[in-house]
Amino acid sequence: MLIDFFFLYRPFLGLFWLDLDCAVISGLLERAFPLAVTLFIDQLPQGDWRLTAAAACGLLVLYAVNAGLLTVVIYWGHKLGINIETAMRERAFDHLTRLSWRWYDRARTGKLVARVIRDLEEIGELAHHGPEVPSSR
Predict the structure, then answer these.
(1) What distances in angstroms separate CA 101 from CA 94, 109, 111, one per listed residue?
(2) Residue 131, number of CB atoms within 10 A of its CB
(3) CA dist., res. 107 & res. 94, Å (int)
(4) Cα(76)–Cα(68) distance, integer angstroms
(5) What CA–CA distance (Å, rounded) separates 131 from 128?
């Protein structure tokens, strides 16, 4: 069953790698930012305003790059999850339309539909947030 889930990523490998790469780089930058601030505070000579301004601009650029990476992770990562959720919905719909009328006479269809929708939403969220785990805080 887990292998079937991984095959859902196949049509969206570009989005998967974009999401994973941006998440990992963003995580590394988040780890590097406090080190850079410490270096900025401890190593810069006092009174050298040009060097201080350059270091502050460097930290600002680092922060802006990280914000851009997080924007990619949030937007395109959720796009990845939605695409996978849509593919799973299509498979579930194909399966449910092949079931016999007798099966539907015995089943509680309202609970079935609610369960399928809720479960597929949760799996879609896992599909998006799963690749981000290596860089989680």
Answers:
(1) 15, 12, 17
(2) 24
(3) 17
(4) 12
(5) 7
Contact 125, 80 (CB under 8 A): no
| Calpha distance 20→4 (Å, rounded) | 20
Specify whether the CB–CB gap between 63 and 33 falls below 8 A. yes
CA atoms 4, 116, 86, 18: torsion sign: negative
| Residues recorded for the chain | 137
Query: How much is the pTM?
Result: 0.70
Question: pLDDT by residue (tens digit) across 66-120?
Answer: 999 999 988 988 888 888 888 888 888 888 888 888 888 887 878 888 888 888 8
Across 87-96, b (16+ Cβ under 10 Å) vs e yields bbeeeeeeee
CB atoms within 10 A of CB 76: 17
- Dist CA 24 CA 14 (whole Å): 15
Note the pLDDT tens digit of each residue in 10-66: 888 888 889 889 988 998 998 888 888 888 778 777 777 888 888 889 889 999 999
